[in-house]
Design goal:
Helix content: 25-40%
Distance between the termini: 29 Å
Number of helices: 13
Largest sheet: 7 strands, mixed
CATH class of the largest domain: Alpha Beta
CATH superfamily of the largest domain: Type I PLP-dependent aspartate aminotransferase-like (Major domain)
Number of domains: 2
Shape: globular
Strand content: 5-15%
Structural class: alpha/beta
Order of helices and strands: EHHEHEHEHEHEEEHHHEEHEHHEH
Length: 387
């Protein structure tokens, strides 16, 4: 039996149309996009066409797209680029406690360089609180995620951006988890920078982009080289990956009607689980969330044990962000939401994708019911299955 893949927030399967383009470019395009001969010009056309497709997905101008090696580099570029580019005269940065490690760790680096960083708290729903009170005369940048990778909770970045714009503060959002899953148009959002990653929307790994609104100040470039990307990011472009990224964005733009399909899969899964298993808790706001994400706690079962049992039975899930797994520590996101450690340790993230079917969802629930029943301990085991 094929494995049922329910971990699309970690990475998505590459779309066949994307794979075809990536393979073709690797096999047939030998030119460096910076070369002036015909092979180089041919490669440059591929990069330019992809830039247009990425821009089109989010309603940006192609000139506002800077290609990177992925979401992590885009996030680092935004934070370090602003902080080191504008200097320490206004050295205050605001972010939140539930950001991705590629935001939180650069903030630690900036603190070591003398910058002041405030990390906003979140409520039990996972929504960020206290932004306006945190802004000061020295605030340089606010960086808040659009969607949380572990809970799927969507932050109100429109309101956050309006608050920062009133104060003349630059606003960056990590939209790696939301771009391609829900429609986003940057001309309608008060954001100055936005991070995107190809492999979160059925594109190849190792490529992403930072949207930089026209008129934004020049950023310090963490990667200096030969002047590629209009001297904003050095290094020979990953032509095959960028071409695949462009195709993935094109496919995503044409498939937003499938957002309702993802919501239906998610809601059907939750209904079946809640009706068949006792002691299930949903973590995070049920309304303001991605259409594909559920983070569930299972009373009386260790999440790691449940993950292994599901994997052995052919269902791939996660206990949190793939980029912070293996630490042995409770999820910082769920901890920030005030969830007790025993509940955090029972949590599993289910994230669905366009390739999933109703039949897979129902089969996954059957396996989940059996796995929970097998691994529950003590008094919890006596009331595992609802009747």
């Amino acid at each position: 039996m094929d494995k049922i893949y329910l971990d699309h927030n970690a990475t998505t399967p590459i779309a066949p149309e994307v794979l075809e383009i990536v393979t073709s470019v690797l096999q047939n395009q030998i030119g460096n996009p910076s070369s002036v001969h015909s092979a180089g010009r041919s490669a440059r056309v591929l990069v330019d066409e992809a830039r247009e497709k990425v821009a089109s997905l989010i309603g940006a101008s192609p000139s506002e797209i800077v290609f990177t090696s992925g979401g992590t580099e885009a996030n680092n570029f935004a934070l370090l680029g602003v902080a080191l580019g504008l200097g320490k005269a206004r050295g205050h940065i605001v972010t939140s406690q539930v950001e991705h490690p590629s935001i939180l760790n650069p903030c630690l680096q900036l603190e070591s360089l003398g910058f002041e960083v405030d990390r906003l708290k979140v409520g039990s729903s996972g929504c960020i609180e206290g932004l306006e009170d945190s802004l000061t005369e020295s605030t340089l940048l606010v960086s808040l995620q659009h969607a949380n990778s572990e809970t799927g909770v969507l932050q109100d970045i429109e309101r956050a951006g309006e608050s920062t714009r009133k104060r003349g503060v630059l606003f960056h959002t990590d939209a790696v988890q939301s771009v391609g899953k829900i429609p986003i148009q940057v001309q309608d959002l008060p954001v100055d920078m936005m991070s995107i990653s190809a492999h979160k929307l059925n594109g190849p790994k190792g490529v992403g982009a930072l949207y930089l609104r026209k008129g934004s100040p020049d950023l310090f470039s963490p990667i200096c080289g030969g002047g590629q990307e209009k001297k904003r990011r050095g290094g020979t472009e990953n032509v095959a990956g960028i071409a695949g990224f462009g195709k993935a964005c094109e496919l995503a733009r044409l498939s937003f009607q499938e957002t309702s399909k993802l919501s239906s899969l998610r809601d059907h899964f939750l209904h079946l689980v809640s009706s068949q298993i006792s002691g299930v808790e949903v973590f995070g706001d049920l309304e303001n969330r991605l259409p594909n994400t559920l983070n569930l706690g299972f009373e009386g079962v260790e999440g790691d044990t449940l993950l292994i049992g599901l994997d052995m039975a052919g269902v791939a899930v996660s206990t949190g962000s793939a980029c912070s797994s293996g630490t042995g520590l409770p999820s910082p996101v769920l901890t920030a939401m005030g969830i007790p450690t025993d509940k955090i340790n029972s949590s599993i993230r289910f994230s669905f994708g366009r390739s999933n079917s109703i039949a897979e969802i129902e089969r996954a629930v059957e396996i989940l019911v059996r796995t929970v029943s097998t691994n529950r301990t003590g008094t919890h085991a006596e009331r595992t299955i609802k009747t």
